[in-house]
Amino acid sequence: MNLCFLPNDGRKYIIIKLTIIKGLVEYFKSCLFVYHDIPTFATFAANEEGNLEYLTYIEDHLKHELPLYPIFFFDRFIYRAYYGFFGYGRCIECNLLFKDKNLWCKYCHSKRFQDNFSKWDSGDETINDIIRKTQLNAEKTCQVIEWIPYDDFENIEHFARGGFSRVYRANWIHGQILSRNYRDHDYIRNKNMLVALKELNNSSNINDNFLNELRLNIQFNNNPYTLKVLGISRNPSTKNYIIVTNYMKKGSLLNMLSRKKITNWLEKLYLIQKISEGIKLIHDAGFLHCDIHSGNIFYENVSEIYISDFGISIPAYKVTSDTKINGVLAYTAPEIVNGDGTRTIKSDIYSLGILYWEIITQKMAFASERNDELFLSFEICKGLRPKFEERTPEHLKKLIESCWDANPQKRPTIEYINFVIGSMIFYLMNTREDLAEEFRLKSQAEEENEVNDQSQYSKVQEEENEINQSKDSLLTSKLSFKEALFSTYRNSYDEYTLESQLSKYNSEEWSNNSNDSCMIDINELEKY
């Protein structure tokens, strides 16, 4: 961020943010003892560039290595509180209020985009119309998509293939629009950025499947848990259209699970929570994903999870009894496999249950049965489910089993899943240190008895090469960290107990979603 283009309000925000974060870093540095050698603010120059350098170090470096949750919690709090009160300033051209921190003026930008409509053409009027509408209606930079000429990409390399597409990585020379340079009256762009090019097979003639995926991806650009669409392009050789998205260096969750052994239960729960939150936002928008599996979820770190591939997603109100089996069979609900039911939100919940099992075991569901889909179909309908390992905590096991219940009506809602997982995390980290210790011991036992169960993943991922290995876990189960981290806030949560919060879900309002199979048993929690 270059402060010379920020209004005075932006400068004030940076100063306030810098002051508070500086104090928090110094405080937690003393609490965390020797976790990391955190540089003090004095190591940076005491000027505007030094301030930005310090903030950049904290935000872009430490957040991937040090679990300083309070720092980033306060960062978000300061951001919302300050700008909620003072606003973002005004556009120097039209004097209208900015909508976000990137100083985006909808009126000025839409006029600029409209003046450039005649300078590009996708070759299809429907696509032209979609791009133009997003540009005219964009209120934030993340809502803008562009027509990108194919010759604006360089270093194009194929790295993956899906059922309906081929995926390439490339450098986008001009790059994504970040903000407006009011000095030069031009855009500030992320030049030469690495992007993914998803070339859809047989899309030279526009069809409903392509338009459906394009519209859904654009609609979910505001969802913080979905892969962002940056633009549309076209391969001049095949004439196929291309959806351009951010490139995820770490690859899919499937790839991560095959390469990195997660022995920390807290990280597993947090990963499940982030995925559940992303699916909830999709359901809240009135859509079903219909193809949830670990290959369609991208993992940068435990705080950055992105859901992708909306090619077969459908509006919840359009499901019919003849909805076909799409996606990966192992994740498909039995009512869809046997053709007796329709795709509903509960079908996505079933897929989530299989995904949760893969996260906690780091094994592929039905690995030995996948080669015989007919046999697997019969077995799923007869009640075959993945087997839990003995070390799986009973309350987590019950929740996952409820997700893949053969009766869709007995599966929990996504809201209930989020609540239960969130309660487990909070209860683990804050109110029960003996529970945290038990989880820590289980993690140690897993690490000591670790066996190589990853070969089955490697076979599936032969085409996903050259993907960087995941960084070390962001989370740690060391009690010394928990004591330092939460002692500050413990008094604020004295009235919060798992029993009191669960009582909210025992009411008649939640009776349909809180059946015996998925409710947390407090006695079981005492065991773990």
CATH superfamily of the largest domain: Transferase(Phosphotransferase) domain 1
Radius of gyration: 25 Å
Low-confidence runs of at least 5 consecutive residues: 1-11, 28-51, 61-71, 316-323, 450-528
How many helices? The count is: 18
Query: Which structural category do the helix and sheet elements fall into?
Result: alpha+beta
Main sheet?
Answer: 6 strands, mixed
The overall number of domains is 3
The CATH topology of the largest domain is: Transferase(Phosphotransferase), domain 1
Secondary-structure element string: HHHHHEEEEEEHEEHHEEEEHHHHHHHHHH
**Architecture of the largest domain, according to CATH?**
Orthogonal Bundle
Q: Strands of the largest sheet, in order across it?
A: 1-7-8-6-3-2
The overall average pLDDT, rounded, is: 70
CATH class of the largest domain: Mainly Alpha
Relative strand content: 5-15%
The gist of it:
With 528 residues, the protein is α+β, with helices and mostly antiparallel strands.
